[in-house]
Amino acid sequence: MAEELTPETPEESGEEPIKQRKNGLYPGVSDELAENMKSGWADTELHGLEPIAQAEHTARRRAALSARFPGERLVIPAGNLRTRSNDTEYSFRASTEYAYLTGDQSEDGVLVMEPVAGAKGTDGADGSGGGHEATIYLLPRSDRENGEFWLDGQGELWVGRRHSLAEAEQLLGIPAKDVRKLPEQLREATGPVRVVRGHDAAIQAALTDKVTAERDEELRVFVSEARLIKDEFEIAELQKACDSTARGFEDVVRVLDRAEATSERYIEGTFFLRARVEGNDIGYGSICAAGPHATTLHWVRNDGAVRAGELLLLDAGVETTELYTADVTRTLPINGRFTPLQRKIYDAVHEAQEAGIAAVRPGAAFRDFHDAAQRVLATRLVEWGLLGDLDVEKVLELGLQRRWTLHGTGHMLGMDVHDCAAARTEAYVEATLEPGMCLTVEPGLYFQADDLTVPAEYRGIGVRIEDDILVTEDGNRNLSAALPRDADEVEAWMAQLKG
Ligand code: GLY
Ligand code: MN
Ligand code: MN
Fold first, then answer.
1. Residues 22, 28, 30, 33: is their CA dihedral positive or negative?
2. Is residue 12 over pLDDT 60?
3. Rounded CA separation 96/172 (Å)
4. Three-state secondary-structure class, residue 373
5. How far apart are CA 377 and CA 391, in angstroms?
6. Other CB atoms within 10 Å distance of the CB of residue 395
């Protein structure tokens, strides 16, 4: 990619005509060329577009938000591109709050909910004569007259065609305006306002005298808690994410011999291919941990050797095009067969996971599945003689099993892998489960390579099994059940895929 002619934005360069800007590497643009580039382009405006599949759901989500904050202006930015190095950027991923409330994923987009006085607004839900009108602020199509479409770094000739504001309105079901005017409008606005922080510095700066951290946090917490219960659209997306993820795991098993010839990177790249082709991306950095790396909980360097006779702990998830992610772990014998000790440890983790999954049902405490899984693991660790003379109750009371179980047994899952992270303790960790919640159940046992308290043969073995479980009216459904977990079934599945 060549450097664009004029890297600075119109704001930075004031009134300077775009055609005269240059960065030193390119000559200036002649009047003749500037004139030539203005015309001869077809009208590509799209008409009669159908709303996106999610539109009715996003309208309902905005109505709930409106009802919670009557009379207040609410500002929810998508965020901006972030620099990776010099003039290259990380790939853009819209903020969860913005995508959840709009169904849109445009960089620089901002949803503004304007309070409506005395009349029920388009997004009003409280029936008390208030409500809000939603407006989505977006970068419009590039101007051909002033040359920005080919001379500006954000011009469509460089980054691709955007939807026009009229097209965006039809697709999203939300009136759309030019985002470049929004900071000034927000600076001039009066009345109470809240913003979701951390996504868009320019929008936040425009509001700096009008907002407080505490009130803004209440907005973030509300959107986080609203996402605890998934609607039909979200459940279908999570199922898609799990199905793609299962295919990605199968891809990996098929190429394990090539990974053995190279490194864990082959596994990372193989899974990534599936995520990019079927979804938007991976939902988090894939953990492709072979051999002793499996005992490092978030091993994402993925630069180690893959050896027959050792285990591969693969923790990976496809994020769908609508930004819902799976979070699945399987621990696989690289040569297709567990050794007796690997199987003993694997079976204990599997048994703990079964106990955890069985504890996921409406009305159960969120902590129940963790406690159930920990009890199984503590029981096995005591049986194996790793905790001296202590009995299971004492071990659990003192939490001594945690030297090898290390982490919590699961978390909410959705648009973020650790979803609903801003929810209050009483709404999440200390709450009871309800139909529509989706969470992971992921016990593990990890014997560090330098752990002198276990027999030498245990050292360097790590096992985790993780599935994505939807709470249903009468219990639960395992969305990632397409991937086997039972040790015999894992071996049979691998044998079939390896041919
Ligand atoms: N992949 C991160 C986790 O399992 O929580
Ligand atoms: Mn995981
Ligand atoms: Mn997880």
1. negative
2. no
3. 16
4. helix
5. 13
6. 22
Q: Which atom of ligand 1 is nearest to the CA of 327?
A: 1
Residue where the block lists tokens 């029981």 = 379
Whole-number Å distance, alpha carbon 420 to ligand 2 midpoint, is 16
Q: Residue 496 Cα, ligand 1 centroid: separation in angstroms? A: 28
Task: Report the candidate in 273, 276, 277, 301 with the shortest Cα–Cα distance to residue 287.
Answer: 301
CB atoms within 10 A of CB 119: 10
Tens of pLDDT, residues 324-376: 999 999 999 999 999 999 999 999 999 999 999 999 999 999 999 999 999 99
Task: Tell me the pairing of strands 444-447 and 318-319.
Answer: unpaired
Distance 398 CA to ligand 3 centre (A): 25
- The region of weakest confidence among 17-21, 26-30, 244-248 is 17-21
At 59, give phi and psi (nearest 5°).
-65, -40
- 304 has a pLDDT exceeding 60: yes
**303 bridge partner residues:** none
Rounded distance between C-alpha atoms, residue 306 and residue 98, angstroms: 40
What is the bridge-based pairing of β-strands 193-195 and 311-316?
Answer: unpaired
442 CB less than 6 Å from ligand 1? yes
What is the CA 457 to chain-centroid distance, rounded? 37
In this predicted model, what pLDDT tens digit does every residue of 454-473 receive, in sequence order?
999 999 999 999 999 999 99
- Sorting pLDDT into bands at 50, 70 and 90, what band is 118? low
Residue of 245, 249, 287 with the most ligand 1 atoms within 8 Å of its CB, for mutation: 287
Q: Are 243 and 277 in contact (CB under 8 A)?
A: no
Dihedral sign (CA 204, 206, 209, 211): negative
